[in-house]
Each structure stands twice: as structure tokens, then as C-alpha cells.
Specification:
Structural class: alpha+beta
Largest sheet: 5 strands, mixed
Radius of gyration: 18 Å
Number of helices: 8
Number of strands: 7
Order of helices and strands: HHEEEEEEEHHHHHH
Number of domains: 2
Helix content: 25-40%
Distance between the termini: 27 Å
């Protein structure tokens, strides 16, 4: 028994943010660029940072070439690069991370036993590491997603999207997690994310990106 229907989840998460928009641009050679915005008046263009993340394109996991704009201060004392809103600093984008964590927590099964909407995906030990990183900031993740969903669902109340409420299933609370309170907060945040976008019939990736912008401290890391 899943909290959201698998087929509806598959449709909502079939495309990563770069397919939908999100400030990415596709070049003729098949690579992608993310120019971002200048950090300030005293920052100047300083080439590109090339990475090869894995993203979801029409339901298929693909490794892409992505170039992110680099910047340097006028006095050359500091450099940085533009970070896309779905960039978590790992080899997979935020959508894929969120889907894997959700499917594991909602199933409340062993690490090797839970099912996802797609046959491909990261190594399960990688997902286990993600959970360890996600639980310390689970409450902040939940609140950021809630703020984004409240705004997206206006003018109707967000609660109308969840007629059965937001209480975690017994299978989740019954399982012995290392940090059960944080796991419950993370489950709730991800249920808001996926249940909300399915209820609104919207792709998930843009709402996840908007949630990152709703952090109390914009400098905080998101999700992981």
C-alpha cells in the first residue's frame, strides 16, 4: 500500500528540471549550460565549471554534460559558480534524490526491497547515505516544501489536496529508524511534495526547485 499511486507518481517525476526549464539551456552539441545570475557588481565571468550529473528525461535516467557559469571577484580574492536550484552537490539531481528517499520511507521496507517508479536508479547504499544526510535538515525541508505548496495551491487551501490528512502511515512509525522523529518529518515533507503535485496535476521538479527558494536561510543546504 502506497500513499500515492505509483502510475501518477511516475508521470509527475518523469522529467527533471532542465527538461521543463529552470534556467537551463540546451546547446547544439547536446550539452547543457546554466548561466545563473551574477553574484554581485564586483563579480566577473570566469569560464565554466563542467560536471556530469544524472537526470531524468522522459522517464529515462541519463548522464548529461552540464556547464555552470563560474565567477571571480574583481580583486581575484574569491571565485564561485552558479548553482542550479536542483543541484544538491551529488551526482544526481534533487528530483531523483527525493523520489528515492520517498519510495524507501513510504514503503518502510528494507533498503534492498523497496520499489521505485523506474527500473534504473542509484545504488541503494547511496540512498542510505542520502538518508543520513537528509534527516538532520528534515524539518527545514518539510517547512520549505510546505511554503512552496501553499503558494502553488492558492486560492484553495493546501489541505484540500490531502483529504485523508498528513498523518504518517503505521508501517513507517512501526519501523525502527535511527532518528524516527526526523524520518517522520522527512516523510511528511516528501508527501507534501509528491501528493501536492499529483493533486495539482503538475510536474514535481519545478515545485521542488521553488521549495529550495523558501528556505528560512537562503544560504542553507537543501534536502541533503
Amino acid at each position: 500500500m502506497h500513499s500515492v499511486q505509483v502510475e501518477l507518481l511516475r508521470r509527475a517525476v518523469r522529467d527533471s528540471l532542465l527538461v521543463i526549464g529552470g534556467g537551463y539551456h540546451l546547446l547544439q552539441d547536446g550539452s547543457w549550460v546554466f548561466p545563473g545570475e551574477r553574484p554581485g557588481r564586483d563579480w566577473h565571468v570566469h569560464g565554466w565549471l563542467e560536471v556530469r550529473p544524472q537526470v531524468r528525461v522522459r522517464g529515462t535516467l541519463r548522464r548529461i554534460v552540464l556547464r555552470k557559469r563560474r565567477w571571480i571577484r574583481s580583486d581575484r580574492s574569491e571565485s564561485t559558480h552558479s548553482r542550479p536550484p536542483d543541484d544538491l552537490g551529488v551526482r544526481f539531481d534533487a528530483l531523483l534524490v527525493a523520489v528515492e528517499l520517498w519510495c524507501w520511507l513510504d514503503a518502510a521496507l528494507g533498503l534492498q526491497r523497496y520499489m521505485t517508479p523506474f527500473e534504473d536508479g542509484p545504488d541503494r547504499r547511496t540512498v542510505q547515505r542520502w538518508l543520513r544526510r537528509a534527516t538532520p535538515r528534515a524539518r527545514e525541508t518539510q517547512q520549505a516544501i510546505r511554503r512552496a505548496l501553499i503558494e502553488k495551491s492558492e486560492p484553495r487551501p493546501m489541505e484540500m489536496l490531502f483529504p485523508r490528512g498528513l498523518a504518517p502511515p503505521e508501517r513507517l512509525t512501526r519501523r525502527r529508524w535511527k532518528d524516527p522523529s526526523s524520518v517522520t518529518s522527512l516523510w511528511t515533507g516528501l508527501f507534501l511534495l509528491f501528493g501536492g503535485t499529483i493533486g495539482l496535476d503538475l510536474p514535481t521538479a519545478p515545485l521542488l526547485a521553488e521549495a529550495r527558494g523558501r528556505l528560512t536561510d537562503p544560504r542553507s543546504r537543501f534536502l541533503l
